[in-house]
Structures are given as structure tokens and as C-alpha cells.
Known about the structure:
Layout: H1 3-7, H2 29-33, H3 43-57, E1 71-77, H4 84-94, E2 102-108, H5 111-117, H6 125-133, E3 140-143, H7 151-156, E4 161-165, H8 179-183, E5 187-190, H9 198-207, H10 209-218, H11 230-252, H12 258-291, H13 296-302, H14 312-321, H15 325-346, H16 352-370, H17 379-384, H18 386-402, H19 407-429, H20 440-461, H21 464-467, H22 472-476, H23 485-492, H24 506-513, H25 525-538, E6 543-545, H26 556-562, E7 565-567, H27 571-591, H28 603-607, H29 610-624, H30 626-642, H31 665-669, H32 674-680, H33 683-697, H34 706-720, H35 724-746, H36 760-778, H37 780-784, H38 787-796, H39 800-813, H40 816-823, H41 830-841
Parallel strand pairs: 1-2, 1-4, 2-3, 4-5
Antiparallel strand pairs: 6-7
Helix pairs in contact: 3-4, 11-12, 15-16, 15-30, 16-23, 18-19, 18-20, 19-20, 27-30, 29-36, 33-34, 34-35, 35-39
Amino acid sequence: MSLSSKRKRASNTANSSKQAPPNHTAVDKESTQNATTTTSINYEDDANDLSANSSNSFHTDDEPISSKRPIRIYCDGIFDLFHFGHARMLEQAKKVFKDRDVYLLVGVCDDQLTHEKKGKTVMDEYERAESLRHCKWVDEVIEHAPWAIDQAFLDKHKIDYVAHDDLPYASQDTADVYAFVKEQGKFLPTQRTEGVSTSDLITRIVRDYDQYVRRNLERGVTAKELNLGFLKEQEVNLKKSISEIKSSIHQNWHGTKTELRNDFSELKNDLRQTFAVWEEKSQEYVREFSRRFGAESVVDKLFRRRSRRNTSVDVATSVITGVPSDHLRVLATLMSTYPLALIFRSLPPKNQNLKHLFSLTFAILVMFGMFDVANTASMSRFVTGVYGFLACALLCYVVTVYVKGKWAPRIVFFLAMGHLSISHIYRQLSRTSSDKFDLTGPQMILVIKLTTFAYNVYDGQKPTQVSFELTPYQQSKRITVMPSLLEYLGYVFFFGDFLVGPAFEFMDYRQFITMDMYRISSKNREQHNNEVKQSRKNNILSQINGQILDKQKDDDNDDEKKNLYYIPNGFYPAMQKLMFGLFWIALNMLMAKDFTIEWTLSEEFKKRSFLYRFYYIQIAAFCARFKYYVVWLIAEGACILSGLGFNGYDDKGNVKWNRVTNIDVIAYETADNIKTLLEAWNMNTNKWLKNYVYLRITPSGKKPSFFSTFATFGTSALWHGFFPGYYLTFVSGAFVQSTHRAIRRNIRPLFLTPKLSSYKRIYDLTGWFVTQTTINYLIVPFILLSLRQSLYVWKLNYFTPHIGVILINVLFAMGTGRLLMKACGLLSDRKVLLKQTEKIENVPETGFPDN
């Protein structure tokens, strides 16, 4: 382009006087020059303002600028996503002198400098330079421009003035990169265009990201080109479908509603077809996987029609054993986990995905084999069926991934507990037998896993200084690295516990799969060497990676470099659990048919004496616990055999296998107080209630209140279902536990003193009797479920434990505790005794386990 043609572009402007804009604080170099306004822009006025400033405020070098050549003005910037704010600034610089031609040079920084000083750009340096070359106000583009101008740069390009807005731009070396030219009087301030900037444009794109993604997908751009994951692509498609449905509803709402009805009918048919394909493909996947192990025939049997399940063999076995046929199938499934545990141990330790798939495949086999697959024609059957079970697990994972902060675990808790509640209500309305084993059992385990997982992810997102507010147990379970979907499903559907428990934490599963719980250090090296020698001698069921270690080596780093691990022999502990479980099966066959809680509703029971009724309930409640002992012990044994039950070594170097222990039968049956009894029963559920309900309700740093206990028991009742019997048991249990605390604080200290210590055994024996009889009395509604029937049986026993609880609380409220202390001459030592009692007994504020 010739110089004369460039001069023709300059326009004459009228003179006007305006003050230069006031100084502002230092801002970003690009964002301020690129801001916009919604008002109309008068370019001639801006040029007049700049011209007035140039004639009144600027001076030239010692050598005056020749009137025969154009004035050389320089502008610089990033010019990413070139827009009209950039063009307006360049136009002002071009029209600054009304009577002189201007040769406008524009510098653009390269990518390396821009990314270092400011950050990543959308356009690269070539695209940004080409955008400037196509602007009619620009005469020359200087690529690789410096961030700060110096005298050498001015001389090289023969620059007379530098134009830019007047805001100071701070850099690492100076408070204003234009301070150099301002001091020389060569700076021309331009007017900013408020309201538009590159940052603002990027903000708009990010804000409407889903809409732009959807638009590009509709235009044929692939998800891979858009860098979309599978879940994100499905999320966008789902939002599109919802948007279309909303649009269709809006258009047809005031019409004949025919189209609307057709849309929903079509959507319903699509869902049916989708679920049918889902079931077909899942069965194909299971068959293909099982074919590799030669078990295809077994899988085909599991997928046969459900009407053929209750075969004559099932019925005959049920009659002989006194165990319902569905319970027998549960027992058979649990027994099958023992050989599966041996196979699981033999899987390659480094192939973690194979381990996840192993558990997931078995879970799918069991669910499709034992439970009714959802009938897609019925939404209630879908929600409460296998598909709803799987959908709940996937939905909670999505919430945990995409929702940040404290609301994520709350939403997951609401979704998981809400879905379980729907299943409980459906079970209750369909009048399903209370003794029938259906999908609500595994769902209860699922709720524990999903909610603990969500809270652990939330705790892992907290800064270190905030995470110190967590208990040591909660600290140890924090998830700082989000698992993949496959790892998550492997945890949720772990073959050893997904059916009846015991539920465990995700970090236990991760350390189990990655072998971290078996790493060898100097602390367990001696025990490791002994186990290696014994295992080589017996040559049974031990998995060892490594060799006998030198006793002189105490540096753990050497072991870590060798990546040594050792899985102790869990065969004998697992068999002990299995044998113990079989023992309770035998006892159940001998006693359960003769001592049932249901018989307490008969007229014959009513005619018996009070003592007979009282002791019959004790035996019947004892027999009712057999089935829980059986499934929990057998399931724990399978987990031990797989290696998951390993929990380190005790002080004597013996292996501990109690990581997933869910029931301590001996401790429960010999408990002399409610605290010990609750700690021994359904232990992993109690850990969940304590760490994710009880302690989450209690404000940090404050002492737990009765409300915390009451709310926790209420959550436990909700988790079990909506039968009135559950709430009678748990609400009464809350008052009993409160009374138990009062006794421990006011009565127990007396028997820890020298005066009454000789009567401590009598106190303990009395405590055992009262505790066992009270808990057996309280669980009657838990079994009968009906409000009327439960109150009827309690009435036959004259509500004895309830009356005792009320009397004890009234007596303590009247100061009986102080009177007893005074009578024993221990009133002055009352506070000291209370502290000693809490220290010796380590009494927590709840009856739940401490870890």
C-alpha cells in the first residue's frame, strides 16, 4: 500500500477540549484496553479529544518532527479474539493529529511471552497478527513485540509517540510499563471502550458452554474433537432431550394435548426399548465374561424365568431346615464367595481393573439371578428393581464428581436414602413378608457405601488446616484422589459384601486393591519372615511377593523401592468364621421353629403367667438373632479369605483380621451395658451412624446432646424402613441409652471405690441381666413391625422396661445420685469419681464404636 493511499485514510476532526482521564490503579494489559460499553460510540469525538490532548500536553524531542513525513505512532497489546474494542483504540491512535498523516505501527507479543506474563490465549501469535493486518487503521504489524518499551526499540522503529489507554500496567520490574515514554512526553492516552474485552468474551463462552457444545454436536463435530468424555456427552444429550420435551410441553399446553400425549407415549416406548436393550446387552456381557471361565451353562440357568425358582428341591429343603427358600439362596450365594475369594487372590496384583471387573460381574450375576429384574412397563418396579439399584449408584457418582462443597454429600445422602425409602414403601404397600429377602437388603448396604464415599470425597477436598477439625477416623478415610468409574463400581459391588455386608470404607477397598495395606516395613518384617517360613513349609494359601528379608536392614526406603508386600494366610481365620456361622445355622434348625416372636400374639401365650411370657420373649429374641449371626459371620469369612479383612498386627505381632468385622457374638451376648452391646452389634453400620450422622449433626467443638442421639436413632429407623415397629424400637432405644448414661455417671462410680469394689461383680451381673432383658424386650416391635401387635406384646409384659426407664430418670432428676454419694460418704469426691470413671471406661458420648 502506498503512503499517499494511507494518508487518505486520515480524517479531519473538529477541535474540542476535554481533560485527560484520571489515573487508575494498575490493571491487566489486555483486559482494560478491550472493555466495551452498550452506548453508541462517536469516533470523531474521541479523535478530537485525543487531538486536543496532543496539542496541549505533549512535547517533542530536541529534533522536531519533519512536517514532510507522517508521524509514526506505536500501539501494542495481545489482541486475542480481535474485537471492536481493539479496532476503536487503533482508530483513535490513527486520527490523533487532525492536520498530519499518521503511520500506525502495532506490536503484538508472541505466544511464549504472553503465556508467561498473562496466560494462555485462544488465538496463536500468527492468528493475532493476521487479524491486525486486516484492520484498515493499521499500517504495519510488528511481531514479537516486547512487553515493556525501551529506547532501543523506539530508535529501531523511529517511533514518535506511543498510544495506549492511560491506566498504569504493572509488571514484575516496574509499576507501569509505559512510565518510560510518559517521562519523555511521548505518550498519547486513548479512551477505553467499556463493556467488551477478551476476558468478557471468554466468560460468555464458558457460561454458555453446554449450549455451544450442543450446537457443535448437532453440526457434526465429534465428541473427541470437542475433548468431551463419555459422561459429559451423555449429560449434554440428556439436557437436549429435556429441553425438547419442555419446548413441546410449552407449545402444546394450550392445544388439544394430542401431540403432548404422543410425545410422552413415544418417550415411554423409547425408555422401554432402551431398558430392554440394556438388559439384553448386560446378559450378553455376563455370558461372554463367564464363557472364558467355562461357566456359561451356570449363567444360562441364572437367567431363566423367575417362576421356576421355587423348585420342589427348594421347598423340600425349606421344610426340612425350617429356613425359607429365599434365605437358602442367600446362604448358597454367600458360600459361593469362598471359592471366589480364592480366585480373587490369584488375580494379578497389578491388574487392578480386572479385580474391579471381577466383583462387578459377580454382583450382576447375583442380582439378575436372585432378584426380580425391573419390569420396564411399571415405573415403580423399575425404581425398586435392579436397574434402579444400578442407576442410584451411577447418579450418586455423578453428583460427587460434579457437585463441589458441602452440598455434594447432602445431595447423595438425600438421593440414596430417598431411593431406599421408595423401595421400603413399595415393599410395605405390596405386603411383602417381613422375613423375605429382597433387594432392599443390598440397598441398605449401598446407602452406607454411597454416603460414606460422598463425605470422604468432601473431606478430601478440604484444605489441610480445615481438615484438622475431623476426627482421626474421618482423617484416615479422606479421599484426595477421585477414583475412576470402574474403581468406584468395583467398590460398590465388591463380591464379598454387597449382598448382606459388612459395609466398609472406600479407602479400605483402595488400599486392598493397590496392595498398600500389605506393604512390608521394618515394623512387620519379623512377622513377615516367620509367616514366609511357615507358608513355605505348609505350602497353602499364602501370597508372597519378595523373599525373607535381612534382619539387619531397618531402612523402610529399601523395602519401598523393592515394592514388597505380603498377604498373610487368612485361611484358618476364615474357616473359623465359617464354622461359627454354620454353628448358628444348626442352632437355628434346633430352636428357631419352637421359639418365635409371632407366637406371642396367640391366645395361648396370653394365658401364660407373667414370668413365662417374660422369659419366653428372652429366648425368642435370642433365636431371632441367629440369621444375622449366620450371614454376617459367613460374609466376614469370605472377606478375610480374599485378604480384605487384614488389619495389621497387634502389639504381640499377631495378625489382626477385624477390618470388616460386623458382629462380635460373644461380646454382644455377654454385654453388661448398652454401650458394649451396641458396639458389638452391626458394627460397621454403627460406625456409619456415628461418623456420618451423629458427629456430623453435632457442631464442631461442642458436646453431643440428646438431640444428636435421638436424630441418630431416627436415621437408623429410617434406614430400616417405615414399619412402625422400627420406630418403637429405636425411639425407645434412645431413651434407654440416655438412662444408661445416667446410671454410669451416678451409680457406677460407687462400685469403683475401695468401700464398694467387692460388690463390683454383683453390679456387673445385674447390669448384664438388665441390659439383655431390656434389649430383648425392645426388639419385639423390630420383628413384628406392626404398631398394634407390638404394643399388644409390650402390654402383656406391663411395659416393665419403659416404666423402669421413667422411674430412674425421675429419681435422678430429684437428686438421687447426690443422695447415694452422700450416703456412701463420697459426695466430696463425686467430680473426681466421674472423671475417673470416664477415663477408665473410656466412655464416649454415644454407644457407637469408637473407630
